Amino acid sequence: MVPQVEEHLDTLKERLLVMGGMAEEQVRLVIAALVERDTQLAARVQRSDQPLNDLHVEIDQRCVRLIALHQPVAIDLRAVLAAVKIDTDLERVGDLAVNIAEAVQRYLHHPPLLALHYIPRMADLAQQMLRDALDAYVRHDIPLAEQVLSADDVVDALKAQASVDLIPLMQGSPATIEPALDLILIARHLERIADHATNIAEGVIYMVSARDVRHHGQPG
Amino acid sequence: MEPVAAKIDLRALSVFYGETAALREVTMPVRAQQVTALIGPSGCGKTTLLRALNRMNDIIPHSRVEGDVWLDGHSILSPSTDVVALRRRVGMVFQKSNPFPMSVFDNVAYGLRINGVRDRREIAERVEESLRAAAIWSEVQDRLHAPALTLSGGQQQRLCIARALAIQPEVLLMDEPASALDPIATQRIEELILALKRTYTIVIVTHNMQQAARVSDVTAFLWMGQLIEQGRTEDVFTAPRERLTEAYVTGRFG
Fold first, then answer.
1. What is the chain A residue with the closest CA to B244?
2. CB distance A3–B251 less than 8 Å?
3. Does the CB of A76 have a partner CB in chain B at under 8 Å?
């Protein structure tokens, strides 16, 4: 017997995946706009946030209905709670892509800076983390979720390195300050996106194993 | 789990009806002043377990018990156990309310009288006390001498609880006490259970999973006569240890 709640949970999963795909695509496009110096593409990303916001609301409503009508318990309850958190993280990823799009449009008024190479690397990692976190969610794959957690350290290190490299550049040439600040900002947004992927991975670990690994697993 | 003393200790308890094992080597403590819920599909042995706690299975022909049940450190299965005294200490409330065909007052006084209480004032006091404890006093105080069968279903069930309380038991066994009641009457019984656990040790059998989640401190899941998992109710309903328990509480069984 397949209980009704399972069908609803499957739909929930599907919708979250659609949302995850959209968020990931926004990140991919905005970095492509940066690398290919395509202002129009950046402007398009900035305008394309609405479907993600709509899905955020829709998925939350599905979760509320599921709890009210089906009173899920055990892994089902954890899956619904995870969905409420994951859709919030994905919505924030969408917002951050919009923030990056704004910075990219400003940055593209200036000639390119050398330290740019950190950004696509960080973006690739952040996207991979998002993809892995959502795959882990769908497949209940704890090792994959744990991999996402460790990848976050690499993104953090890259972000720190970008600032370290850009500071002497700004000190040497005031004209680079504006574009350099935008690159630092973009690096910071990408680092935040990786953090949201980390949150999702932590949610997956809780959903599958009932283990809370946030904040180093405190309190026992 | 908090170190609360075990009121009842089941030790490798098995119950057979003829050749069939209805309960297989169940070992678990039942702690004082807590509500322990027994859940599991029909035929899993939960009612058999409940009835073993005051030797109600004795009256079933061809039934046989192995292992032991300890109440306050004494075996209730030993031949020297006074079964009548045991049932006075371990009271029972059934699924279907079963008031005697007599007045509200006499239903509650019945147990006192057969236990030799003669003093009219003492009986009146104990009846009122029990009806108050069962949260039905305000509804019946003006019709104590009306036939109990004129009460509503929910009132009859609370009357039966008052009847069980009158003889001052230590343990209350409840076999689906709210399954025949509407949601409001059910809620009153659940509130009553929560109030009674301050004084009594309560074991409840229920098919209503949400009810087990709402009223119990400890939940034990039985399946095919075996104790699959026993733990804090909040753990059993958020993160059960066993796959079978998870399948059952999430409705993915069979």
1. A74
2. yes
3. yes
Please report the pLDDT score of residue A211 as a whole number: 87
Topology classification of domain A4-217: Methane Monooxygenase Hydroxylase; Chain G, domain 1 (1.20.58)
Sign of CA dihedral B88, B94, B99, B105: positive
Q: What are phi and psi of A92, to 5 degrees?
A: -65, -35
**Res. A115 pLDDT band, cuts 50 70 90:** low
Check if the beta carbon of residue A104 is closer than 8 Å to that of residue A42. yes
Domains defined for chain B, CATH in brackets: 6-97+174-249 (3.40.50.300)
Backbone φ, ψ for residue B116 (5° rounding):
90, 10
Nearest to B106 by CA among B150, B140, B134, B148: B148
Contact criterion met (CB < 8 Å) for A5 and B237: no
Question: ipTM value of the model?
Answer: 0.71
Tell me the mean pLDDT per 10 residues along chain B, length 254: 74 94 96 96 94 91 93 92 94 90 96 92 95 94 96 93 94 92 89 93 94 95 97 94 94 78
